[in-house]
Amino acid sequence: MPIDFDDPANARTYSDRDVDPSWDRAITGVLDPRGRTVVDIGCGGGVYARAWLRLGAAAVTGVDSSASILEAARAQAPAGLDLHLGDAAATGLSAARVDVVFARALVHHVADLPAVVREAHRLLREGGRYLIQDRTMADVDQPGNERHPRGWLFDVFPRLRQVEAARRPDDASLRDALGAAGFDAPSVRRLWEVRRRYDDREAYLAEIGTRTGRSILHELDDDELSYLVSELRGRLPAGPVLERDRWTLWCAVR
After folding, report:
1. CATH fit for domain 8-141+167-196+245-253, picks 1.10.10.10, 3.40.50.150, 2.40.100.10, 3.30.70.890
2. Radius of gyration of the chain (CA)
3. Where are the beta strands (DSSP E) in 105-229?
4. Of 64-68, 222-226, 241-245, which gets the smallest average pLDDT?
5. Of the N and C termini of the chain, which has fewer Cβ atoms inside 10 Å?
6. Predicted local confidence at residue 18, as pLDDT
């Protein structure tokens, strides 16, 4: 079944890692974060909200609909990060006040994409940027290998691809929603982001075995998850694991 973001058992699933410089380079290739005010919608554990501050943002507001996940985020929130309980389509924040609205791994979870896009448009100042980082099916279908083990999930359990196909945004639908809300046509780039570096294969498999930070694994029952771990153990070398994921990054101007 889909992940329950309100379950306290999942409170830290998106909290305990650092953002890799591969993401920093992608963001600074689109805009200069220094001095900007940013709203991170669907901020989860605040991992990327903290990264915006590290890149020089003046202030960051993280918005998430899960009280338990926000509680975990507050435990690591630095100065300059304000965390706010709210819905992606109705944040409750003031209009036309921020320079950047950022949404990473959010839009494939929302029920009403146009409403979420309209809310981002409402929050931005004139000339502000809306950055959406998510996967299309072209990203999902990248083949698995030692640096992209996520691709192997769909080899082991092909039905997971059907789950992804039902929830992942396509470029045309996203462009339509952006245009209808009043955004300019977005620029689009592909991003290979290093998600995490692990000392060895077993450290990576321990995260897989607890479904940490990977909502797609909540579609598997415990027996299936154990089988997946076994399959991945057979495909990965025993040494360090560098896990990369392929994303699409849309940037639209208000």
Report:
1. 3.40.50.150
2. 18
3. 124-134, 187-198
4. 64-68
5. N
6. 87
